[in-house]
Specification:
Largest interface: A-B, 47 and 47 residues
Oligomer: homodimer
Number of strands of chain A: 2
Helix content of chain A: over 70%
Distance between the termini of chain A: 53 Å
Radius of gyration of chain A: 17 Å
Chain lengths: 226, 226
């Protein structure tokens, strides 16, 4: 089978997601300068490519390669690049590496589980989706507080492998809001190099993801209230 | 679904493969010293874990997570770690990065295709398997000749996505031979730090993979001769 011939439009976005994830790792591996910011910008671009890939797949139909490629790209961009960024940016010692490894393993298990059970439920994800976990972890790195990032790594790993139902964001207004915030944060990281702006941008991104992280509790309360 | 409860013995080896791949990336990211050698040792360990995972899965039966997890680990250990090692070890400039990205993309496409067509043929792989490509690329880095590694990156990427039938190595004697060479090379890299030994170890590994790379031609000739 000529694998280049079976590539469909949504796959292009999936491959872009993978490329952005790899670029994030390359920048995270470079010491000093603005490389941490660039790494986060690439993780944001990967998240946007991931969103577009889903949107295009729903409009134009998926491809045979789709589901497999999607997991591969997501693991690199959101399961591997963020903990690698945390280790590189904070020069975390090998003693802490097992926590980063735990995050990566939970991300892989989350993706493998999704591929088996995804057909069953169309409304909710089971466990925190890996892009949200990866974005939250990467944003925390910019806050410059290693202890928080380490704790978050553990907590996000557990949320990913939990059975908590997370809503699928397919509402176009919500998707636009998320993309808007991503673009704003990416723009600040690229063009404003003063610490204050970077801090605000990281907090804005972290806040948005936090809202999503606690959304299952809110949804449950709203349903009870009805 | 509690994802930790569905983990089966072969999955343990797959997760080990992923951990070794991540360790290889962490060591590749560290500049200087023996970190390149350590990165290659971890890629060799990942290849051994990958082999054991297949062996155990055939003896004890696969797991529901198996196929998905396997691709994820293989992409990290053999699709991402080797080109990242090449870029880090040789300080390859961004101009060369597209070739590394091409290797990664072809690796992902190879894995995604394998997951769709694997049921069809039980005797041969379609295209060079990603562990062989990753090992060959990593071994070439130790030879210290960047031009060779860059050319190899392109060539291996094309071999992976080709339709050339590669034999599946399931013969226990052959598997033992491969593991023996891996362990020997890993031992040399860990305990002998003089350049001569490292060069011989890299050549031995590269030679073994090269034999496998040309095996389709040999098999075709032998079949014609019959």
């Amino acid at each position: 089978m000529n694998v280049f011939r079976v590539i469909r439009p949504p796959d292009i976005f999936t491959l872009l997601n993978l490329v952005f994830g790899f670029m994030a790792i390359l920048f995270a591996g470079r010491a000093g300068g603005s490389s941490t910011q660039y790494a986060l910008v690439f993780i944001l671009l990967a998240a946007m490519a991931d969103g577009l890939d889903g949107l295009v797949a729903r409009k134009m139909g998926g491809s045979p390669l789709g589901a497999n490629l999607d997991s591969l790209a997501d693991l690199v961009s959101f399961g591997l690049a963020p903990p690698f960024l945390a280790i590189s940016a904070f020069h975390l010692p090998p003693l802490i590496w097992p926590i980063a490894i735990f995050f990566l393993l939970c991300g892989a298990l989350r993706l493998a589980r999704f591929n088996i059970v995804s057909a069953k439920s169309d409304q909710n994800f089971e466990g925190l989706p890996i892009p949200a976990a990866g974005l939250a972890l990467s944003a925390s790195v910019l806050l410059g507080w290693p202890q928080l990032t380490i704790l978050l790594m553990l907590f996000l790993a557990l949320l990913m492998t939990s059975s908590i139902p997370y809503p699928k964001i397919r509402d176009l207004r919500l998707m636009t809001l998320f993309s808007g915030v991503y673009i704003l944060v990416a723009a600040v990281l690229l063009w404003r190099h003063d610490t204050d702006y970077i801090l605000y941008a990281a907090l804005l991104l972290a806040g948005l993801i936090l809202l999503y992280m606690i959304s299952p509790v809110v949804i449950k309360r709203l349903r009870k209230g009805r």
